TrEMBL record:
<keyword id="KW-0067">ATP-binding</keyword>
<feature type="binding site">
    <location>
        <begin position="168"/>
        <end position="169"/>
    </location>
    <ligand>
        <name>ATP</name>
    </ligand>
</feature>
<keyword id="KW-0808">Transferase</keyword>
<dbReference type="InterPro" id="IPR041739">
    <property type="entry name" value="G5K_ProB"/>
</dbReference>
<feature type="binding site">
    <location>
        <begin position="212"/>
        <end position="218"/>
    </location>
    <ligand>
        <name>ATP</name>
    </ligand>
</feature>
<feature type="binding site">
    <location>
        <position position="8"/>
    </location>
    <ligand>
        <name>ATP</name>
    </ligand>
</feature>
<dbReference type="GO" id="GO:0005829">
    <property type="term" value="C:cytosol"/>
</dbReference>
<comment type="function">
    <text>Catalyzes the transfer of a phosphate group to glutamate to form L-glutamate 5-phosphate.</text>
</comment>
<dbReference type="InterPro" id="IPR002478">
    <property type="entry name" value="PUA"/>
</dbReference>
<feature type="binding site">
    <location>
        <position position="136"/>
    </location>
    <ligand>
        <name>substrate</name>
    </ligand>
</feature>
<dbReference type="InterPro" id="IPR005715">
    <property type="entry name" value="Glu_5kinase/COase_Synthase"/>
</dbReference>
<dbReference type="GO" id="GO:0055129">
    <property type="term" value="P:L-proline biosynthetic process"/>
</dbReference>
<dbReference type="InterPro" id="IPR036974">
    <property type="entry name" value="PUA_sf"/>
</dbReference>
<dbReference type="GO" id="GO:0004349">
    <property type="term" value="F:glutamate 5-kinase activity"/>
</dbReference>
<keyword id="KW-0547">Nucleotide-binding</keyword>
<dbReference type="Pfam" id="PF01472">
    <property type="entry name" value="PUA"/>
</dbReference>
<protein>
    <recommendedName>
        <fullName>Glutamate 5-kinase</fullName>
        <ecNumber>2.7.2.11</ecNumber>
    </recommendedName>
</protein>
Length: 369
């Protein structure tokens, strides 16, 4: 049975830890494994880190750049060399590839989001393996994915993938960092990500010297992917052949089960593509109406408005403690909402002086967190 598979491999797996040079043996194994998956009929997307690390090596830098401009320059040097390495290895196996560089804004605008979806689908239909990375050369700080774990989860959500494999420098998720804690317990299955807190799982917030992510970003990525209905696995990057074994049912790595009722395509975009421009704090009645009854948000339920935003921007819907309960697309600007918050819908025309939408956030444009 053909499945759509997204594989993310991090800098820690792609490079040698002591020098930052490309780990060509590992890359060759990844290429071989993904080409084999294609021959088995699966559709495959590779999200690959490494451009900045390769750029540092090419320029003789001994540590990762700290400023955005320096990182962008180094990424521009490294990306071409990285994709050339992939192209040489995949070409030897007669497997065509494509380079796809994304910025966060490609997923924020609905038209660009849909266009990205169509491009990926056409590439997969052609039998191509897209190789995805963040466009570090153009991305600005407020529109960055932050790490490729998040990027891979958003790509998996975008295309409605069946599987997301997060290849890293450990073989699975543990209750603590096994490199430092001999009592760390392996975790094979996670049905609900909130379970990890009950298991007292400790995750580091950093990866290697050359990478940007740690286990915390992988768990965050798993949360994004599983809410989109994507089965997610954390496993060892230096054994990419395990992907095929996992697809055949072997219990390797840590498996995160997808949510039983994943979002549809539009709600996946609202939940994961959009960046919230503000917050609405709601009273308990509005919170219950949204959470329990699946209703739209009305102006009467809004206690406080935070941030500056326009109509059709995304906002976070929070309870009185500031805990996000949902997010959605608003029908009013922040200026308008300051005037009508706490008011009944039938009073809105007289307050604003013109007819407006009955709902502040319609339930079709609202996603529970």
């Amino acid at each position: 049975m053909s499945q759509t598979i997204v594989v993310k491999i991090g800098t820690s797996s792609l490079t040698q830890p002591d020098t930052g040079y490309l780990a060509l043996a590992t890359i060759a194994q990844v290429v071989d494994s993904l080409s084999r998956l294609r021959k088995l009929g699966h559709q495959v997307i590779l999200v690959s880190s490494g451009a900045v690390g390769v750029g540092c090596m090419r320029l003789g830098l001994t540590e990762r750049p700290r400023t955005i401009s320096m990182k962008q320059a180094v990424a521009a040097v490294g990306q071409g060399r990285l994709i050339r390495t992939y192209d040489d290895l995949f070409t030897a196996l007669q497997q065509p590839i494509a380079q796809v560089l994304l910025t966060r804004s490609d997923l924020v605008q609905r038209s660009r989001y849909v266009n990205a979806y169509r491009t990926f689908r056409q590439l997969l239909k052609l039998g191509v393996i897209p190789i995805v990375n963040e466009n570090d050369t153009l991305a600005v700080e407020e529109l960055k994915f932050g790490d490729n774990d998040t990027l891979s989860a958003l790509v998996a959500s975008l295309i409605g993938a069946d599987w997301l494999f997060l290849l890293t420098d450990v073989d699975r998720l543990y209750s603590a960092d096994p490199r430092y804690d001999p009592n760390a317990r392996p975790i094979a299955l996670v049905n609900q990500i909130d379970e990890l807190e009950a298991l007292h799982v400790e995750v580091g917030d950093r990866g290697t010297n050359w990478g940007t992510g740690g286990m915390v970003t992988k768990i965050s990525a798993a949360r994004i992917a599983t809410t989109a209905g994507v089965r997610t696995v954390i496993t060892e990057g230096r054994s990419p052949q395990n992907i095929e074994k996992i697809l055949q049912g072997e219990a390797i790595g840590t498996l995160f089960e997808p949510q039983p009722q994943p979002f549809n395509a539009r709600k996946r975009w609202i939940a994961h593509g959009l960046l919230p421009a503000g917050k609405l704090y709601l009273d308990s009645g509005a919170v219950n109406a949204i959470r329990q009854a699946g209703k739209s948000l009305l102006a009467a339920g809004i206690k406080e408005v935070e941030g500056e935003f326009q109509s059709q921007d995304a906002v976070q819907l929070c309870d009185s403690r500031g805990q996000e309960i949902a997010r959605g697309i608003v029908n009013y600007s922040s200026v308008e909402l300051q005037k009508i918050r706490g008011c009944r819908s039938e009073d809105i025309p007289s307050i604003l002086g013109y007819e407006g939408a009955e709902t502040v956030v319609h339930r079709d444009n609202l996603v529970l967190s």
